[in-house]
Write a structure and sequence with these properties.
Blueprint (H helix, E strand, L loop, with lengths): L2 H11 L8 H8 L2 H8 L3 E2 H8 L3 H14 L2 E6 L2 E6 L3 H8 L7 H13 L1 H11 L5 E4 L17 H6 L4 E4 L2 H6 L9 E4 L1 H9 L3 E2 L2 H13 L3 E5 L7 E5 L7 H7 L4 E2 L3 E5 L9 H5 L5 E3 L5 E3 L9 H5 L5 E5 L10
Parallel strand pairs: 4-10
Antiparallel strand pairs: 1-3, 2-3, 4-8, 5-6, 5-7, 6-9, 8-9, 11-14, 12-13
Helix pairs in contact: 1-2, 1-3, 2-7, 4-5
Length: 331
């Protein structure tokens, strides 16, 4: 079997047949022997050894190395630890970019993929998925409006209710480096935190440190994003408009891979001094200055992130519920 066919098969396994770049990424992260083991997944080390004609200890060592690289995942089963291949392009992207020993050339090739092939693939995904995979969470709100915000859309509650929290680098900014926003700000929650710490792709943080990371992210102009399922949040990403694999497409090409929150910004025009900070801060073009100079919200563009609220020196902006609880999918 030739090198190219092995790596093309791996690309097919994550539904990327026809890509010219994804096989090259596989080739950079796995040699031919490792690629053959990957094609034998799922299985335990013993099962993979039998499939590939290797010693079990050798197969185990290879699988652990591939786990650290982020291309295989493991779970404990009655028959032993079972390994499986990354299930999709997004999982391959998010996990393998956090490979602790990744060379710069690997990052550069990923960014080439994001520039050349990702927009077309994302357009196809948008047409297939019933709803976007992720959603915006508003910045932490004042106590008086907490009764309108559910636990799974409140950043503090997500952290407070987690049994473990870890932080990793932002995969998008790690490869794109198109802005100077902070990089070590993506929070992993619960099982995702367990995975991060076990694999060595991030570090465990206290809940206090996690909340400080969220506060600093808000001040830096980053938008909180999590999974688009009620009660099932494994991460809180903190996203920018220059590097984010979702926001760049939403802003430039109207390719929507991220739902808004259930809230939208509202301006108290009596308190607004027309300083323009909110307009500068909004990634999505949802704020503009009206003829009288006061800030005006374009409801159809507002993602309900609250970054404008954080920036307003007059506290003239608040977040108002504009969508019902059922807007966020249960599963």
């Amino acid at each position: 079997m030739s090198d190219s066919s092995v790596y093309e098969q791996l690309a097919e396994r994550i539904f990327m047949a026809g890509s010219s770049i994804i096989p090259e990424l596989w080739k950079m992260i796995a040699d031919e022997r490792e690629a053959e083991v990957l094609l034998g997944l799922p299985g335990t080390a013993a099962e993979l050894a039998e499939k590939t004609g290797r010693d079990e200890a050798e197969a185990q060592e290879m699988l652990e190395g591939l786990y650290r690289k982020g291309v295989v995942f493991k779970s404990v089963k009655p028959e032993g630890v079972k390994y499986r291949l990354a299930s999709s392009l997004v999982q391959f992207h998010d996990a393998s970019i956090l490979w602790p020993e990744a060379p710069q050339a690997y990052y550069d090739l990923w960014q080439r993929y994001m520039d050349e092939e990702w927009p077309g693939y994302a357009q196809m995904v948008m047409g297939v998925l019933p709803r976007p995979f992720t959603r915006v969470i508003p910045v932490e709100q004042p106590v008086e409006v907490k009764n309108r915000i559910l636990a799974f859309e409140d950043v503090r509650s997500l952290i407070d209710n987690a049994n473990r929290v870890a932080v990793t680098n932002c995969t998008c900014r790690l490869i794109a480096h198109k802005c100077d926003k902070p990089v070590e700000v993506c929070l992993q929650i619960g099982k995702a935190a367990d995975y991060t710490v076990d694999r060595g792709s991030g570090r465990e943080v206290s809940k206090e440190e996690a909340l400080e990371i969220l506060r600093l992210s808000e001040e830096a102009g980053l938008v909180h994003v999590t999974m688009n399922r009620a009660g099932d949040s494994h991460f809180i990403c903190n996203c920018c408009d220059d590097c984010c694999m979702s926001f760049t497409l939403l802003i430039k090409d109207a390719i929507n891979l991220c739902d808004p929150s259930r809230f939208a910004a509202e301006v108290d025009t009596a308190a607004c001094t027309a300083c323009g900070l909110c307009e500068e801060r909004c990634y999505f073009g949802a704020l503009t200055l009206a003829e009288d100079g006061t800030a005006q919200i374009l409801a159809e563009k507002c993602m309900g992130c609250g970054l404008c609220q954080v920036a307003c020196p007059e506290e003239a902006i608040s977040m108002t519920q504009v969508r019902e609880e059922g807007f966020i999918p249960l599963a």
